[in-house]
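Weekly puzzle thread! Below is a chain. First person to post its structure in token form gets bragging rights.
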Amino acid sequence: MYDELENKNLCTQCVGESYLSALIADQGKMRKCEYCGERAKTFKIAAICDQVDGAFQRHFTRCRMEMNGYEWAMYNDPETSFEFEPDGDQTVYAIMEAANIAEGIATGIQQILEDRYSDFESAQMGETTEYDSELHYQELQPDDREWQETWRAFERSLKTEARFFSAQAIEVLNRVFSGIDLMQTRSDASLIVEGGPGTPYEHLYRARAFQSSDKLQSALLRPDKELGPPPSNFAASGRMNARGISVFYGATDPETAVAEVRPPVGSEVAIGRFQVIRALRLLDLTALSGVIAAGSFFDPEYANTLSRMMFLRSLSRRMARPVMPDDQEFDYLPTQAVADFLATETVTPLDGIIFPSVQVTGGKQNVVLFHKASLVAKLVIPEGADVEVETHRQDDDGWHRDYTVYWRLAAEKENGSAPEVDRDPLAGLWDPPSAPEDDMDFRSERTETLRITPTDLEVRIVNAVSFESEDYKVDHVKYKRQAEADF
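Winning reply:
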């Protein structure tokens, strides 16, 4: 019936949808277009119908054409002017919009596809079949169920099967993060952001709670060592690092840094402001919720791309969800594996990850710098200096808290050189070491990333802690059971 129409030629210039137009230009044959009259690369309308049908099967669904109970009540109410209008677009217009073609071309495609799907039995029963001219179609929402199940299997594998040499884990992480550096958000922002001088991530804050005055004084004297990343043999496991892997966890503001260490009431919290002294590449997990997937309905891979996009939007919540202390050993395994994978530069060079804080509301951010990008420049105490930390001072009103670090430098001779000092060979043996004597990165090839000075410190006394919670009343139901029936 539609043989003549199916054999008409449609050229690449008459198709506005970029992927379909490029497909015609690549695979079509040079013929005269029967719609614009130009000689160009063309497809038969039958082939265009195949492409449209595939796109609609993957990305569109038929809309409801009948009123529900509420709509019927509204329609029959004489006091309302309600008129039922199905969602989506009528078939011809849906095809026009998807392929960006003229209405006449779309009408021919609709007629051919309706004929392909029609059958005698359905016609006898008055049922509408696919591509009926009266139907309405709308775009399907992406479905990430397959990706979610893949991720759950990945988590189970790490916890119960192979933790360190898992081919399945590597495959999943490659699928999830491949091309992450090319993705964009709705605001045209990249998922990879710059950190360092002149960026919003020029300074990072790190806190540590103290219940001992001696340990606090050591931290104020050597914040590079005591507030920076711990040596590997002291590095406990965290959300983004396994035990023994030393990384730098910081926050973008001091309040979040304090909240993240969960200090007990009465403790003293030292906060260090670390300056990022070189350019960094950071993956912003907080931007994943706005990631978009560019593509074409006519690309067979686009449906999977949309599903992956839908999954990535939820990944930030997965990686930052609260974990109870008793469950950390196992529940941190997936996020630790992700951080290790991204640190290896398998998909793109990265220095760290930006992720949302679970301790503070309002979109506050944390940053983890991988081991390779977490070296703190050593704070060099001048040779011969006497050092002291005071935490209180006295005035007429008594003693008050006052935190001061003193460097008493050696006096200079009149000619400007330092005086010779007859030192006891054991003098200073128990003094805090200077930076050259305490090289925590001996023979490492890492580049210094962070710097802190004695003026980049503050101490906060935790007087109280407040919580934001959801409160639920516990109901109590008391009732008498019915006697069992006597048969």
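Puzzle host: Confirmed. Bonus trivia for everyone else. The radius of gyration is 34 Å.
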